[in-house]
Amino acid sequence: MQIPPQAQREIDRVETLKGTVEINGSEVVVNMPFQEGTGIPETFKRRIEEALSRAEIKSESITFEPKSSTDTDIKKFYLPYDLYANCPTCGDRIKWNNYLCYPTYGEPENIHFYCDECEDDFTKTIVIGLKVEEVTA
Ligand SMILES: [Zn+2]
């Protein structure tokens, strides 16, 4: 589940509140008060995220509502990164700059590395998130 940026900011802001979070006038009450200054317990954060994922999140002029399907429907999905991992056999630093095939946002994707040095291959798992934010002048 991808949390819209505005909602994420609200989650970050909740550190100064106690057990309740206000989102654009519609109150989401979470019954887990905590001590101020001790940070947000992970369970508390999860409950807020669950509540927010069900709530309608409004930005300045765009409404973000989670969709049931998070398929990208993209055959060749290129990342805006080169990924690097160390070979578990010889320790060489290996670059991955391939593309993903029909990935899904928020779901684990396996990526495969091949080491030219020792001819070992190994798999790592990544998750793709997507940041969508309204840009105002
Ligand atoms: Zn190697």
Describe this entry's structure for a reader:
By secondary structure, the chain is an alpha+beta fold. It has helices spanning 5-13, 42-54; strands spanning 20-23, 26-29, 57-58, 63-64, 77-78, 83-86, 93-96, 99-100, 108-114, 121-127. The strands form five sheets. The chain has a two-stranded antiparallel sheet with strand order 1-2. It has a two-stranded antiparallel sheet with strand order 3-4. The longest helix is centred in the middle third of the chain and has 13 residues, at 42-54. The chain is elongated, with a radius of gyration of 20 Å. The chain starts with a helix and ends in a 10-residue tail after the last strand. It binds zinc ion.
Quick description:
With 137 residues, the chain is α+β, with helices and mostly antiparallel strands. It has helices at residues 5-13, 42-54, and strands at residues 20-23, 26-29, 57-58, 63-64, 77-78, 83-86, 93-96, 99-100, 108-114, 121-127. It is elongated, with a radius of gyration of 20 Å.
